[in-house]
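Backbone-to-sequence.
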């Protein structure tokens, strides 16, 4: 494939003058947004810069971005979005110029179909009715198509009279000189050409690595959840290639923790052999490759699947190799036999702990136990097993129960939903004071007037969630669905399937995935681009709060006075970012 990234770095005064004249011509022709040329046959091509948080639709032409430059710290990505349309069709060529050198990517946006709006918990249907007042807070009445998927490349298929999208990402070097830089996206279709300028201001402040906020979007490792091309065999070399591609995308957009399978699935990550005497042997060959892969990509934590679910059909069940017969059989005769499972856990935990210690990964592993627990006594037993047989390994679970006095002391990293974290602020503050983890998660809910990250939500709501982490005292974020399609074609439908495959009803649009399959692996969504902007904001807020906590609190309150009142316009977020960086630059 042709290299989609070509840098034009301007070194001498003559080149700089030519560049300046070109930008000025574009400004005069298109009021800082875009430029159109007409070819001899009368065809036209138009390109305009739009805000990165602007939803694009093939059947609508968007509002141009507000004039001005985007503020960015050193060592951070800066991302621009453009809308393109033409009266003809074909394969457009994409290129850009920029007067600073750095790693860059060009993408065109692929459309997905939204057949139904967000309608509530477990009742989202194609064309279903939306509760009163909700549509005022959603982007558009379904059904509609929207440009959602980033496809990396320098060629874009174009249809006549339709709106198309381009996303340009530039990685500002850590050692970049502070100042304002300019560039332009160039689009060509046959003899037609168009250009749209962009500008960004690099501040003195540099983005630290790693970021101070943890993030995980659960990765589902089944081969059919990693590609829409040929479905490969479990743990084949191609499977590992797809896992690596997925890991690179997740880490690129801020994840530092990866959901890690253990002894579940017919072909588990950790293979078990049951000896003739009933004891177990554990083979960590695949687990080691998994750990070396993701930790090598820059992830900080491997987060082991919930142990209470590993025996269930939803997690693939647990199988062992019977040493006497050589056959692969289910560990439990009855997958509902919790007592038998709890009796197995000490042997597994003892072996896992010893292996993590041998690998030097005790500080890189978290153990999920029981998701959203309701059974107090069962949770006490699980917590006791983990503390005894996984000493020093933090446990982590989403806990929404009103019994915070019972459940919260039993978990090391507690994950709250938005309403729960807001309600149990005293619990969160006490945990933070004791150095215990507080995370925020998003899964299906909440619903308007609360913010969400569904496809029919405003893109700024994806950026908002890390702000809410800061506001409510969370230093981690969790989402359950990076790529859980359950038989759906995520390009043709957006209502998320239930475990039985139902999309009528199903989960809200886009709730099951933030990444989209391609023959070569997962592709990011425009929602995850907006979310990454929020992670950068969170980092800058924490940096400024070390010196000016009151100023930060006022700024956060301006963006989100409460969990039901918050800024949806993108300008507010850009202005907030600029003010934070200006304050940091003075320190």
């Amino acid at each position: 494939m042709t290299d989609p990234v070509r840098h034009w770095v301007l070194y001498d005064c003559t080149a700089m003058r030519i560049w300046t004249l070109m930008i000025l011509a574009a400004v005069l022709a298109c009021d800082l947004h875009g430029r159109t040329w007409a070819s001899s046959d009368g065809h036209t091509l138009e390109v305009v810069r739009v805000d990165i948080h602007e939803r694009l639709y093939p059947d609508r032409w968007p509002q141009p971005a507000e004039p001005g430059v985007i503020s960015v710290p050193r060592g951070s990505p800066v991302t621009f979005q453009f809308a393109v349309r033409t009266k003809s069709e074909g394969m457009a060529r994409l290129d850009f110029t920029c007067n600073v050198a750095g790693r860059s990517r060009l993408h065109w946006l692929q459309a997905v179909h939204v057949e139904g709006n967000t309608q509530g918990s477990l009742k989202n249907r194609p064309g279903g009715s939306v509760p009163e007042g909700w549509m005022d807070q959603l982007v558009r009445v379904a059904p509609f198509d929207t440009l959602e998927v980033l496809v990396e490349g320098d060629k874009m298929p174009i249809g006549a009279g339709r709106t198309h999208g381009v996303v340009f990402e530039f990685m500002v070097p850590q050692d970049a000189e502070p100042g304002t830089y300019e560039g332009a996206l160039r689009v060509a279709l046959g003899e037609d050409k168009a250009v749209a300028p962009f500008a960004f201001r690099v501040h003195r402040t540099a983005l630290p690595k790693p970021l101070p906020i943890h993030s995980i979007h659960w990765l589902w490792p089944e081969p059919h959840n990693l590609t829409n091309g040929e479905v490969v065999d479990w743990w084949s070399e191609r499977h590992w290639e797809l896992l690596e591609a997925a890991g690179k995308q997740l880490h690129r957009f801020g994840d530092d923790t990866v959901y890690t399978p253990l002894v579940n699935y017919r072909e588990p990550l950790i293979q078990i052999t049951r000896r003739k005497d009933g004891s177990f042997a554990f083979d960590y060959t695949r687990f080691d490759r998994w750990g070396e892969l993701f930790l090598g990509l820059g992830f900080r934590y491997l987060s082991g699947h919930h142990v209470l679910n590993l025996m269930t059909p939803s997690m693939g069940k647990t199988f062992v190799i019977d040493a006497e017969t050589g056959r692969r059989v289910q560990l439990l005769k009855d997958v509902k036999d919790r007592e038998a499972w709890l009796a197995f856990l000490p042997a597994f935990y003892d072996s896992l702990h010893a292996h993590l210690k041998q690998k030097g990964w005790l500080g890189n592993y978290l153990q999920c136990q029981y998701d959203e627990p309701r059974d107090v006594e069962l949770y006490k037993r699980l917590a006791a097993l983990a503390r005894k047989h996984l000493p020093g390994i933090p446990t982590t679970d989403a806990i929404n129960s009103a019994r915070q006095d019972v459940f919260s002391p039993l978990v090391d990293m507690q994950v709250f939903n938005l309403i729960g974290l807001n309600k149990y602020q005293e619990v969160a503050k006490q945990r933070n004071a004791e150095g215990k983890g507080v995370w925020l998660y998003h899964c299906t809910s909440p619903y308007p007037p609360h913010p969400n990250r569904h496809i029919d939500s405003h893109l700024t709501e994806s950026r908002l969630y890390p702000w809410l982490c800061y506001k409510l005292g969370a230093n981690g974020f969790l989402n359950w669905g990076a790529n859980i399609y359950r038989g759906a074609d995520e390009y043709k439908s957006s209502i998320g399937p239930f475990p039985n495959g139902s999309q009528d009803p199903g989960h809200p649009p886009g709730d099951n995935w933030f990444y989209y399959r391609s023959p070569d692996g997962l592709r990011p969504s425009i929602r995850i681009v907006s979310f990454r902007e929020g992670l950068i904001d969170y980092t800058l807020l924490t940096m400024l709060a070390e010196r000016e906590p009151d100023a930060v609190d006022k700024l956060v309150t301006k963006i989100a006075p409460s969990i039901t009142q918050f800024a949806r316009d993108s300008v507010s977020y850009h202005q907030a970012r600029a003010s934070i960086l200006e304050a940091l630059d003075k320190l």
